[in-house]
UniProtKB/TrEMBL annotation:
Record GO biological process: mitotic DNA damage checkpoint signaling
UniProt-listed PANTHER family: OVARIAN-SPECIFIC SERINE/THREONINE-PROTEIN KINASE LOK-RELATED, SERINE_THREONINE-PROTEIN KINASE CHK2
InterPro entries cross-referenced by the UniProt entry: Kinase-like_dom_sf, Prot_kinase_dom, Ser/Thr_kinase_AS
Gene Ontology CC annotation, any one: nucleus
Family matches, as Pfam families: Pkinase
Residue span of region Disordered: 1-26
Name of protein: Protein kinase domain-containing protein
Length: 287
């Protein structure tokens, strides 16, 4: 049995010091990299590490090693990095869709740049999965943004480089409902209002013929006490096959198509989860 653990899995740091062409960039600090460990749960040890760097022009370099990340030198990280072809991770801009281009003035401290998830790139390369996921989510956000909802994350548009979509640019929010529960707790939130607003957001999606398919505390942000639904990587029209499925524990059964009932089940599960979190607070348990 294995799992991955590391930095945020969707957003890589953007190096401001490397060029976009030529030889792989030299790593001056581990802060230039996103590093992910594949962890063996049976032996409680690292199986291997993968790491990647995204330049200022959103050119991606990827590396892997069987060494423990603490035993790697900067030179070893640098020499292991290989250029990832744009076609492996970035979809071409569709010719039949007018995309919203995010303002170039937006910076990463004011907006959330969602880039291709590369935590499992070593198993997904040559499959077409990563660029398809980026394109699917971009098109869904384009559709939703034409009928915005206060409890759905704001969409600024996408970032395009070299005629390919390299990032989805979203409203920046700082804390998920899961993080809120594990730090300060959720007892001060109005649970009835929170659920009502989430149900309103989900009803809105359903009115557009879409199901989210992955509602859970990690995909709900809190903005001034108000819930905001995020992560539309599994959101598709009703009945459409999915390549990104739901999360264990938050779906009734394994599923492969987008359906309204998946969201209804998750919302009911969320109500129970909030009740449990509230009970923990009332009993004085540590969050």
């Amino acid at each position: 049995m294995s799992s991955s653990r590391g930095n945020n899995l969707d957003v890589a740091p953007v190096s401001q010091t490397v060029e976009t062409h030529g030889e792989p960039p030299t790593i001056s600090s581990l802060q230039d990299l996103t590093i992910v460990e594949a962890w063996d749960l049976d032996t409680n040890s690292s199986k291997y590490i993968t790491f990647y760097l995204v330049t200022a022009e959103e050119v991606v370099y990827f590396g892997e090693s069987t060494k423990n990340k603490k035993d790697m030198t900067l030179e070893e990280y640098s020499s292991a990095l290989k250029l990832v072809p744009d076609s492996e991770i970035y979809p071409e801009t569709p010719k039949d869709v007018q995309l919203t281009l995010a303002p170039e003035s937006l910076a990463e401290d004011t907006a959330y740049f969602k880039r291709p998830g590369l935590t499992s790139y070593e198993t997904l390369r040559d499959t077409g999965y990563v660029p398809k996921a980026v394109l699917d989510e971009t098109l869904i956000m384009e559709q939703i943004s034409k009928s915005p909802h206060a409890n759905i994350v704001g969409y600024y548009g996408c970032r395009v480089r070299r005629c390919r979509i390299t990032a989805i640019v979203l409203e920046r929010l700082d804390q998920t409902l899961e993080q809120r529960a594990s730090t300060s707790g959720v007892q001060d939130l109005d649970h009835d209002r929170l659920l009502a607003e989430l149900e309103s957001a989900v009803d809105h999606l359903h009115s557009l013929g879409l199901a989210h398919n992955d509602i859970k505390p990690e995909n709900i942000m809190i903005r001034n006490g108000v819930p905001v639904l995020i992560d539309f990587g599994s959101c598709q029209p009703f009945g459409k096959p999915l390549q990104s499925l739901g999360t264990d524990g938050w779906c009734e059964e394994v599923f492969f198509t987008s359906e309204r009932k998946h969201d209804l089940y998750s919302l009911a599960k969320l109500r129970d989860w909030l009740h449990t979190q509230n009970s923990k607070g009332d009993s004085g348990e540590m969050q």
